[in-house]
Amino acid sequence: MTLILLAGAVVGAGVLLLGLMLSTQRVNPAAALARLDAERSRARREQLVSSAAVSGQGGESAAMRRFGGQLREALEGVGINLGSIRRDLSLMGRTLEGHLATTVLSALAGFLMPLVVAAILSVAQVNIGIPASAVLGIVLAMIFAVLPTLTVRSNAADRRRDFRHVVGSFLDLVAMNLAGGRGVPEALQAASSLSDGWAMVRIRDTLLTARLHGVTPWAALGELGDEVGVDELRDLAAALALVAEDGAKVRESLAARAGSLRRRELAEVEGKAGQRSQSMLVAQLVLCVGFLLFLVYPALIGVLEQS
Fold this sequence. Notes:
The chain crosses the membrane at residues 6-23, 100-124, 130-152, 281-304. This protein is mainly alpha-helical.
């Protein structure tokens, strides 16, 4: 019975996919032009600020990218905003299409896992109810669908913090190059070439791509800040766009911003140190309570036995 239900589900899914592929949708010309403009602007931005991993599609297959692209268009068509997860994925060097495809495949694997186990056990004359397997499959599908996004957000938060630290050092290097008599574009390029860390390489590649496309360096840095969700890069781009012709004011602004970033990082480190100190204090209190119970327990048992 389980095998019959699984076969019916597979056939039904195939018929549904065939119907979706053969069905033709009427397209509104205005909506099609708006979608085309959005795709062109997105492609331009990704070409300008994408990392090497994103440019190489991160090892994702073409089928996964096509499937993820269809999912992205469907989600954007119903008004679901994917900007937040897109910034996290860009910081991780991954594509949104590949992430969506991975999420759906993970959810499908979580849903089919109990059903496959139930089918295998039914061959061994161990009967597990179909409703229980279906409910367990739905729960596992929800868990497996959320896990990729949670992992990406956790890793992206760490990388974004490292990126901000690199931006602070980058501002100091740019200020020193400006003090040496270089112009703003030359100072930006020279400062980005002094390190081979992943964040500095991302900045250097963005500046190089901007020069090849005829885009100003500060505009490219602003696009990169929007892409990876780093406000400091957007502020730097706005400051350079306003005072790019006045080297003295640029140096003062960059030095002040670098100092502000260092103070912010120091405050974050002190806050985390305070949280860990509180955690250690709680752990010590728990140990003390356990030790007191260990000392009091024999005397308490003796009193109770005498009474």
